[in-house]
Design brief:
alpha/beta, conserved putative lor/sdh protein from methanococcus maripaludis s2 fold, Rossmann fold, six-stranded parallel β-sheet, 14 helices, 19 strands
């Protein structure tokens, strides 16, 4: 039976790298033998393991190699990557390497090169002449571009736990509604402070439920405090936020009284018409039509917002990108300096954004529906936590925590 020698380095026990590699081998029908293992004596020391991996045949061994590489294993005496040209625009070559969101290197002409902009569900495009290696999505592929195929010459850095207590690792992917939320929210607030101190950006991904639950003033306050650099959402958030600012309603429901207003069901359509008439959100603010709310705060405080459309949009307003491919590519361009993403009350926008983020970006997902949190976390990593909570109480406490820190 074919065999391969692999090596693993890092915090093999604390970060569960070795158990994950072994699980992958067994799950794929392989066998292994530990040839050497050196465990660090102190927590900060790195460990090393050398394994002989066996598959039923070469195809099975190839599948095992592909799987364990994504867990951080490295093949000894590995050669250069195999490259193949794209056969047409928007198409990858057969057998292209499908990426994860973990830091990845590829070997080109004997040199290990870092892959730029690591993100999941992409291919790796290589420019041997220019030495550029980066992830691209289908729309970015052009006929003749060279892409990595197979698994030879690819190394993935496994996700490792921090040596200090970190809420993004301590809580893992649990989504229980019985978590001690105050302590978690305090840690999230602290991480937001640290993110800004590192000169990294904070991204908010919001659904219209933020407006419906009366939480919009908390988002405005976050913007005023300087904890929002970018905002991703759709037509609905912007429309209902502006409806609330202009009419005091959201989908015709008075946010002050919690009751339907007379002919209130018309309000969001009248808002769409008014904003289309003046030419967009910024002209609405500049003309005085829009004097409050989330979108007003974004314009006033220079928050970069991106609104991606869907088939169910009313209008939409002029600022919405209605081509989903264009929206996806633009979102990818705007997340490059993001260090923390806070996703609240939107499954589709949250999953879409998470797919674009490298593993280094910490993600918080908050939703009243546990299934939404679980769906996102199933595609996540050590850097993701989920909270089952209504948007308003979560944001209320988060703002209080940040205001308290600002007052110190």
């Amino acid at each position: 039976m074919p065999t391969e020698i692999v090596e693993i380095r890092g915090h093999l026990i604390d970060s569960l790298i070795l158990p994950r590699v072994i699980d992958q081998i067994i799950d794929l029908g392989g066998r292994f033998r530990i040839l050497q293992i050196d465990i660090g004596r102190q927590r900060e020391d790195l460990s090393y393991a050398r394994l002989e991996v066996e598959g039923e045949d070469q195809a099975a061994l190839d599948a095992i190699q592909t799987g364990i590489k994504q867990q951080g294993a490295e093949i000894t005496d590995e050669g250069d990557v195999e490259l193949a040209p794209a056969p047409a625009d928007g198409v990858f070559p057969e057998g292209f390497y499908v990426t994860t969101n973990l830091p990845t290197r590829v070997r080109v002409e004997g040199k290990w090169l870092q892959v730029e902009n690591p993100r999941m569900d992409c291919a790796i495009r290589v420019d041997p002449a220019g030495g550029q290696v980066r992830t691209v999505r289908f729309p970015e592929s052009r006929r003749g571009d060279l892409f990595v195929t197979g698994h030879t010459g690819v190394r993935v850095a496994a996700a490792e736990r921090s040596l200090s207590r970190n809420i993004f690792e301590f809580m893992g992917s649990s989504v229980s509604s019985e978590k001690p939320k105050s302590a978690i929210i305090a840690d999230i607030a602290e991480e937001m402070v640290k993110t800004k101190a590192r000169d990294e950006e904070i991204l908010l991904v919001l659904g219209p439920v933020v407006v419906h639950t009366g939480a919009a003033p908390h988002i405005v306050r976050l913007i005023e405090l300087g904890y929002v650099d970018k905002l991703f959402s759709g037509n609905a958030l912007a429309v209902h936020d502006m409806e609330q600012a202009i009419f005091g309603t959201s989908l015709g429901i008075s946010l002050e009284e919690g009751l339907p207003t007379e002919r209130g069901h018309q309000n969001h359509m009248r808002v769409v018409n008014a904003v289309r008439r003046v030419g967009g959100i910024r002209p609405a603010v500049e003309s005085g039509l829009l004097a409050g709310g989330i979108m007003h705060a974004c314009v006033k405080h220079g928050v970069d917002f991106l609104l991606a459309g869907s088939v169910r949009d009313d209008g939409p307003i002029p600022d919405v990108i209605t081509d989903v491919v264009e929206a996806q590519l633009e979102m990818a361009r705007r997340v490059r300096d993001v260090g923390l993403a806070l996703m609240i009350g939107t499954m589709l926008h949250s999953v879409a954004t998470a797919n674009l983020l490298p593993a280094r970006v910490k993600v918080v997902c908050v939703d009243i529906n546990p299934a939404v949190v679980t769906k996102l976390l199933d595609r996540g990593s050590f850097q993701t936590i989920g909270l089952v909570s209504d948007a308003e109480p979560f944001l209320h406490e988060l703002v209080a925590q940040l205001e308290e820190k600002a007052a110190l």
